[in-house]
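To the team - EPU complex, inputs and output below.
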Amino acid sequence: MFPDFVERDVNLVRSNTLALPGLAAFYARITCVDQLKQLAGAGLPDTLRCFVLGGGSNLVLSGDFDGLILHQAIAGRQLLGEDNEAWYVSAGAGESWPEFVDWTLNQGWPGLENLALIPGMVGAAPIQNIGAYGLEVAERFHSLQACDMRSGELKHFSRDDCRFGYRDSLFKQQGWHLSGRFVITEVTFRLPKAWQPLIHYADIPAELKARGVVEPNARQLAEAIVALRQRKLPDPKQLPNAGSFFHNPVIDAATAQRLSAAYPGLPCYRQPDGRIKIAAGWLIEQSGWKGKRLGAVGMYENQALILVNHGGATGADVAQLMRTVQQEVREKFAIDLTPEPIFL
Ligand code: EPU
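Output:
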């Protein structure tokens, strides 16, 4: 039934940055599109669950997985072309995102510097429309190619097709990130030549000032962002985590006004649609969870939005802490926190 590159009972503990234990019943390391075509044509049962694993940096493994893990490892990066306005750069879905960003900067193509050092793979970036320091990947996205696992055919998705939102895309809206229906193979970015540094996000001006940089080039801005991230976000190799554990809630302006009146320190960011994004990390800190532990897991001492594994945690421990934090934030602020990582 399975092509011979499919392995059995593979341990996933090193394949997720929260270092949660679990075995994959079936596992395939995908290095080329042809393997996907073979799998699509193999007549696998409809009941077999399929999940595409990238860097495992946005994943909560609940335990053993009885389906097929497709471990994304398609490599390659190239300049596809350029016109007067932009460079068009593509990368295989299995390329490391932070290495790809670094490479584009080394080539002299700025535009992705605010997304420096975000863990994970290129193929995962559009699925949850990764964002940081005032930029979302949707703003630099051109198109992607994905394999339809029902037919084995490659399909092209434009920026509009992808229906990007805050940490959201068509792939999430359709549940394809969980069903494995479409597997992203390559992503193309459009990097405008009319480059302007994006330096307005809260922490950036102070960091640039401390570095004595007034008009940063893209490399200097990337360096400042890398330093900020390293200070605030724990390195998963030292302290396993999955980045921000909750979305920042986006609420209506009237609710935000009421909350701000009661809690003047609440960080609020107006969205283009008039709604207000509020800082989940602040809500969690105010609920007393910054640096606090529940068994083997806890909320990080320097950034309360990061859930960390202090050693030996399971998916159940993570779920229990998640529910406890959600409940306490709901009781104090009447705000529902939704988790950012995917639960498998
Ligand atoms: N804050 C607190 N206490 C905390 C954490 C944050 O009061 O423990 C306050 C900060 O002082 C600040 C505000 O909350 O006023 C926002 O904090 P921060 O700038 O650290 O960013 P964030 O909103 O917590 C988001 C993204 C991060 C991204 C950073 C920087 C989400 C869910 N998270 O975090 O993305 O790196 O902004 O742009 O949107 C990720 O998605 O995994 C991720 C790390």
